[in-house]
Amino acid sequence: MFYFIVITLLTLCGPVVADTILNGDLTQGGIVFGETKPGFEITLDGKPIRVSSEGYFLLGFSRDAKTDSELIIRDLEGSTQKRNLKIKQRKFKIQRIDGLPKKFVSPPSHILSRIREENKKIKKVRLFDRDEVFFRSGFIMPAEGRISGVYGSQRILNGQPRQPHFGIDIAAPSGAKVVAPADGIVVLAEADLYFSGGTVILDHGHGLTSAFLHLKKILVKKGDLVVQSDVLGLVGSTGRSTGPHLDWRVNLFQKRIDPALLVSKKK
Description:
mainly beta
């Protein structure tokens, strides 16, 4: 569900001092694009939120977010206003995949050190807190094709429960173009990661990143600045993949965001 909320801040004396606008989805896996007065401070559940010099900020909610979240806004004079945000709970699909080769269910022990190192590299780029607001470009789909896997679904591989799927899978032919869904800077471009194969990660600013997995070919390099619709690479089936597709994932720092909720939003 799409929400558009305007929070009006009042001082103790009564006059309106600012309007804070929240545009997005107050739901598990959702993201909110906020706008407030420059210089105001925002916290969500006690954690400070970066606010740009123009007053833009982001709020994100994980797959398992609780039903209530507290937003606090502090104005230039130190007055604060609290708002309780109600987070909608979602029901996620269960997906069973049987008959997979053993290597796709449990990686061999000798490869575990490689996996740990690759995970550290990915975690590091997802911790960047860049002050640019590339996300203001809005978002489009990064590839054309049928949605074959959805965010939050619990996968049971050969009868063994695994962690939820945190992206959306777009079924597309091998070699199809993968484009930047929004403006950003390339912070990772790796041709052969164990799980995700050819992988590109874009930083959209304020801790918001997009990852593009299983690429057959990468056409950008780390440090490249891209704009929406620039070609990043080609669809493939590299890494732990059973067929050509794009796995698109979105994080706000370590919070996993549902990419499908981004596409139709106007900033």
